[in-house]
Design a protein that fits this description.
alpha+beta; Alpha-Beta Plaits; three-stranded mixed β-sheet; two-stranded antiparallel sheet; 2 helices; 5 strands; about 30% helix
Length: about 80
């Protein structure tokens, strides 16, 4: 995600929404000011999280969400914030 997505609780809110939706994965800040996440789960739940990411928490201003489909690994057992 790009835009105003750091310093606005975007990671914490994304992790909370991911847990609410029952998906697993992680979210982290990138050095370039963007936020990156990987998520696994049922297609409709992943789609719901990606849709939520278009807005993010109230103080965020999301400019773009770029999606790349990866092969699921099954490595994550929860949704976490990575530092």
């Amino acid at each position: 995600m790009t835009g105003r997505v750091q310093g606005v609780s975007y990671r914490a809110a994304t992790a909370s929404e991911g847990r609410r939706l029952g998906v697993v994965g992680w979210v982290r800040n990138r050095m370039d000011g963007s936020v990156e996440l990987e998520v696994e789960g049922a297609d409709e739940r992943v789609a719901a999280l990606l849709s939520w990411c278009q807005q993010g928490p109230p103080s965020a201003r999301v400019a773009a969400v770029d999606v790349q489909e990866l092969t699921p690994t099954g490595a994550d057992k929860a949704f976490s914030v990575v530092r």
